[in-house]
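Side project, low priority. Logging it here so it doesn't get lost.
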Amino acid sequence: MEKEKDTLYARWLSGELTKDELSSLKESGDLDALEKIRKVTDDFAVPGFDVEEQYAKLRKNKLSPERKTRKLGLKWWTGLAASIAVIIFAGNYFLNSAEIVSAPFASNIEYVLPDDSEILINDGSEIRYNKRKYDSSRNIVLSGEALFKVKKGVPFIVSTENGNVEVLGTSFNVRSRGRQLNVECYEGSVAVRFNNQSGILEPGESISVVKGEMKEKNLIEHIQPQWKEGLSRFYQEDINEVFRELERQYNIKIRLPELDKTFNGVFKHDDLDAALSSICQPMKLEYQLDETKRIVEVSKIE
């Protein structure tokens, strides 16, 4: 009897039932359950899923004497289909809510937010935010560096692993690399927070958080981030992170000895040899560049 039902279900799936077989299935009450399964799977179709092939595999496993299985009725199948539908719906909802924008190495990306605020994303950096909640919660998660020009409105928050930056409407730059955060303010005012530490920046000021410690503010003369002008600027920052930034800008690999130094200065984006010299000379380091393999070996000067 069980085998006959299985055959009947398979013929129903393939659309091969006769009128008498269809009537028999309807009288047994099984047709309603099967139709529910079809409705759910039609609404949430999975590309490339062969129903007959999967049913054959199921029958093979069920008939195998080496496997001990528990027989499950149609109610279980209906519940499974409904559960799959809920999972797919929830996954699509959350995936469609998240907007992720990344800039590849050695290039920048301009991006306009729903409120017309603008972001210029530096190379090797990424932003994420919730499109559905953006109007009421302007929260941007930043990994790397970006320039923000924010329209006035509800508080605008840039979240990084090294601290948060909050504004209402202004122009500012945020760089979060490794264990360091640097913020520069060009217009308006910016609040920078990390744990119990906080600082307010006015135009022409910058501040850094290095390894969990907020540093003193610095005065700046430029009115936009220097990376827009082809320069990377650092304020007493970990030399290892400076070399990581050099790798991103030139898409090269740098091999370093163990270094425990801080760097204050700039390097250019259009001349690798000059950039290496501007970092290595004041740090009493030397380097060898393999142009073919794009590898730089840095060593300490004895």
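Brief comment: The longest helix spans residues 74-97.
Revisit when time allows.
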